[in-house]
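Record type: monomer structure entry
Structure origin: computed from sequence
Chain ID: A
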Amino acid sequence: IPTLVITDGITTQTITDETPGDGAFLTPGAVLFSGSIGSWVITVNNGTTKPLIGSASLPDMDLSFLAVSSGAGTLSITFSDDGFTASSGFVSKIGGTVGSGGSVSSALYLNGNAISNAGPFSPGAFSNTAYGNVTLGANDVLALGVVLTANAGGVVSSGDYNVTVPDGGTTALLVGLGLVGMSVAARRKKA
């Protein structure tokens, strides 16, 4: 079940898809939280997954975040889902901005173990793309996690973290078609 967990180490909000507290209550596959937690006065976090985007065999998970600190602190945001059945390479992409005095880190977890991470990113615009392999069974839990830190109030952190596990057969087909196209173009050029 798609679940969004937001914590500052003292207060924890856990929001499960289509339950009270989910700001996207009537949208299966989307979990939305908007509110304050500890020293984070404005925080809007939205996680999306199947059936809204992706599917069990083609996982696609996305976590969007926006938070403003009112003082020094750390905010951890985790979006998780299970029920995937895929075995292929994954593509993990994160990008956004973080204000002066702050940082952002990210990690992709499989059953609670980090399989990819990036950061901490310094103030300013940031982005990172990572690749790896993953095998998912229906009981495995895939989770996107970001950690926002602020050394003072007024630090604005925002971004988007996306992980996809594209179909290996489709990827191979597209690469193969691209190579055929290049071969045809090379033959035409010679003629």
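Annotation 1: Residues 4 and 79 are 5 Å apart (CA to CA).
Annotation 2: The chain has one helix and twelve strands.
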